[in-house]
């Protein structure tokens, strides 16, 4: 335990061995719960026998915590004085017992169920709501202060009554006047909690007793086992609660840490039995009493009450613990560790142990799942030996890709800055002596990339995920579809086959057309998946094509299988092959199926696997030339013959449904050839694409010869025929010419209108989220003079005007009269989003700040009173981080009244801009990132790259947006092992590395990259890189990949 806080809690201290282990563990444990790094000097500590505990209020006042007694002792022991609230409590308890004895059994069941539900709701909902507000904003203390209950001047009678109630319950070491407001408020809050808890317990018992019955049909042995199990569970419940109270004392039992701090809480004893024992196994008595009462009503009421208690734990307790004691963990922090060979030398005595990946949240706060406070010294000594001799990961020497594989993207090698060059050279020198330092962050992103966990991270363009959904869908369909009639079953198979036809030809056709026009599939994988430095150029193409091949093959197979399923359901074997045309239909159908198989095999023979899977839509390395061989010598699109089998199956089955499916399939294939494949072929091969196939040429030649023969035999009719043909041809030519002119004129006139409509549609879509707001206006607006309100934008320190770089903080000055509402707020809106200057009718989308921050609890005003000492009030607010717009454009500032949407003053416009480099090379891209990344990270020194700490970021000076305690090492202290680990981390850190507090900061970087370089990335990709150089290389290769123009990397 740190010496600076040891005075705060002397009743229970860690043994020396535990202190030693906690200092070595490198993380916050259960014994590290509060007040790390306190710089207050405490009074001289008395001896341990006096059991003295020191507390500290949020404003830093240290006081001696008096002795308190548990509720059972003070309530039931006649030797203790009873306060008025105690008498009320006893009266309510007696009232319950009297009603149980008086009311009939069926009436008491209903009454006590409702009565128990009331007290349970008061506990879980009421106390949960009140304690949450107290934990966040000290609401209870402020309410007591606002109402003056403990103020001798404003409410002397109430203060004296509360003073007497508390003094009667406390011991001789209690002094009401000397103790701070927070402690006395907590004591008063305890009285309310006692009333709720005791009545909640007794009402449940009365409900269980009123439901008591002896189940019929059970043997005597079962009854004995039922009673013994119930008594054991109740006894276990009492033991857990008693032990838990002995550990946390009244301070933890009554949530005293919401009011003041009392040193470190050591969660040992029963807290090592189960997570949150007071809320989990501590309710075993519910089920024990359910067994004894033999009632399902009691069991279900117990389950509901226990579920409500878990809701209290999840919604209040865990967030409160995380808010007060949790350590903020950075995302993408590269904590280096060495491979096994790094410690193989005789001089090596220790090995760095890999730490868990920062930023991964656990299901419950670490404060209740930390290191044990009862670890045996022998085990601890053994652990220390293991830490010195066994590294966390055993990496063989041969796994050094950086020393064996050369980079394939040599033209993207950057011209590093001085700091980066020095770092690189130093790393190269040390690499000869020891392996390259690795980090768990890099290894995780190397082997895991948005892997599907159940249905999380699902991506239907990833073949494995598409197959997963397909298997789940078919499995669920087989289980859920009821028994159907034969006709209904046949129609179901028809629509099933029809769906796969549309998926294969239309769905995948649209996907392939998007790939041809904008490289949609490649963009998708480039955006959503991280690729290493060696794979970023070809990785997205290979992965997109690999997944396309699997999905295309799967769709094609399912198309044929679904069609065969329909044929199987509709086919019936003929009774007499000689009657009618059954034999002819089967023969012709078999021939058509054979033609289909032959044409498909011939097409594959010519196309090969590359053409079969449309490789020219993805890869440009293959030579773009055409060879008309095989079946393509005769036909341009032999795929049309691939539908022959469908018509053949229609003949064989004799089904109209199969025939209609064949027609739809033929039309869908024609649409695919016309709208997907042929346009891509013309774009790729241009004039080298022939117009007529061999078969067509032969037919045309034969027709031409026959025409000449007919012409020679009918010489006398030739002039007349020529005249008719010329007239008809002229008529068609004129119609076609007029139609073409009309279409061109229509497109020329409607083109600007279409562009305007598209632009307006984009604006409307952008405003759709903004307009999801119910405008509220104040009724007392007439009593306020808008001329006395003023809001003005402080010009940017870099531009000297109302022009701010994307992410640069925006400071706004405001002025308001004395009677202005404490719930006033200032919002930031796009210019044009609100037509009215009197009332705001669009949402701020989170871009707003309260004029008085202490008056708001999130988005809800608290409504505290204020003192008025001045004729007017002035102040400033600063928009930064999440309250800033991360989209370039023109915005305005609006001052609103009383938490409503009445506009009292506005200023603007201000411009949000982002600098775009004139040319795209490594130097310009990296310089742009050096400006954007620190702004996206709130200019937090603990997050931004070391290479950016001396570089301008557009916001003037760089200051941390977090308190020092949140930006320091996870151990919360700047000395000892934590400081040494932090220093070692800084030495191993690449100057271009950066980290995040949340994924939202990564989204800001993605938005900036999209607006500057027109390259779209998912936040996971930026988090995986978390390095300026790596991100700059990725942007360069991505632009080359998407545009086909190699960037200038000579800069």
Secondary-structure map:
Layout: H1 16-25, E1 53-56, E2 62-65, H2 71-76, H3 84-102, H4 105-137, H5 139-147, H6 156-169, H7 181-210, H8 220-253, H9 284-293, H10 296-325, E3 336-337, H11 377-389, H12 401-404, H13 418-431, E4 438-439, H14 440-447, H15 463-480, H16 486-518, H17 520-528, H18 539-570, H19 582-612, H20 644-653, H21 656-685, H22 694-713, H23 718-768, E5 790-793, E6 803-805, E7 810-817, E8 825-830, E9 848-850, E10 856-857, E11 860-861, E12 872-879, E13 889-896, E14 903-913, H24 922-936, H25 964-967, H26 977-988, H27 999-1013, H28 1019-1025, H29 1028-1043
Parallel strand pairs: 6-14
Antiparallel strand pairs: 1-2, 3-4, 5-7, 7-12, 8-9, 8-13, 10-11, 13-14
Helix pairs in contact: 3-7, 4-5, 4-7, 4-10, 5-7, 8-9, 9-10, 15-18, 16-17, 16-18, 16-21, 17-18, 18-20, 19-20, 20-21, 24-27, 24-29, 27-28
InterPro entries: Phopholipid_MeTrfase, Phosphatid-EA_MeTrfase_fun
Catalytic activity: a 1,2-diacyl-sn-glycero-3-phosphoethanolamine + S-adenosyl-L-methionine = a 1,2-diacyl-sn-glycero-3-phospho-N-methylethanolamine + S-adenosyl-L-homocysteine + H(+)
GO molecular function, one term: phosphatidylethanolamine N-methyltransferase activity
